[in-house]
TrEMBL record:
Pfam families: Interfer-bind (PF09294). One of its GO terms (molecular function) is interleukin-22 receptor activity. Residues 3-106 form the Interferon/interleukin receptor domain. This is INAR2 protein. The gene is Ifnar2.
Length: 155
C-alpha cells in the first residue's frame, strides 16, 4: 500500500515559509473507527523538497520524524522576493512506498512586508495633498470658477 499524498499548506514569513502538513488518511478501520497512519505505524517520517520557481533545482531537507497527524515546520534562511515551491513525501519504517504531495508554491515573504504598504499609503496621501494644494492655488489665481459679469443685455 502506498502512503500519501499528505495535505500541505504554506504561509510566508520573513525569509521563511511556515509549512503545515496533514498526514494522509488510511483505509483501515478498527471497531468502526477509521485508523490514522499514526495509529497504525506509531511514527512516520516526512521529507520536504524545496525549490524556487526561477529554475533552480529542488533540494531535499533532511528526513524528519513525527508522531502527529497535523503539524507545522518552518523552512528558514530563504532568499527574499523569491517564489518557492514545496512537495512533501511521507514514509514509515515498515512502508517506504509513498506518493508525494503536489507542488505547492508561495512567495517567500509577501505578507511580511508591512513597510511597503505603509510607504504606498504615505505616498498616496502626499500626492493627494499636492493635487489639493495645486487646485487651491489655481482657484485663488482665478483659473476656474471666475466671477464673470453678465452682458448688459441680460442685466
Amino acid at each position: 500500500a502506498y502512503l500519501g499524498p499528505p495535505e500541505v499548506n504554506m504561509t510566508p514569513c520573513l525569509n521563511c515559509i511556515n509549512v503545515t502538513i496533514k498526514m494522509p488518511t488510511s483505509h483501515f478501520r478498527e471497531k468502526g473507527k477509521q485508523l490514522s497512519l499514526i495509529d497504525i505505524y506509531k511514527e512516520l517520517y516526512y521529507e520536504i523538497t524545496l525549490k524556487s520557481q526561477d529554475g533552480e533545482p529542488g533540494h531535499k531537507r533532511p528526513r524528519e520524524k513525527t508522531t502527529q497527524e497535523v503539524f507545522s515546520t518552518v523552512l528558514d534562511e530563504l532568499y527574499p522576493n523569491r517564489n518557492y515551491c514545496v512537495s512533501v513525501v511521507v514514509t514509515a519504517s515498515l512502508n517506504r512506498h509513498s506518493i508525494p504531495s503536489p507542488w505547492k508554491c508561495v512567495p517567500s515573504d509577501t505578507e511580511a512586508r508591512p513597510g511597503y504598504q505603509v510607504a504606498a499609503v504615505a505616498g498616496a496621501v502626499c500626492v493627494s495633498l499636492i493635487i489639493a494644494a495645486a487646485l487651491k492655488c489655481m482657484h485663488a489665481g482665478g483659473y476656474f470658477l471666475q466671477n464673470k459679469s453678465l452682458p448688459r443685455a441680460l442685466v
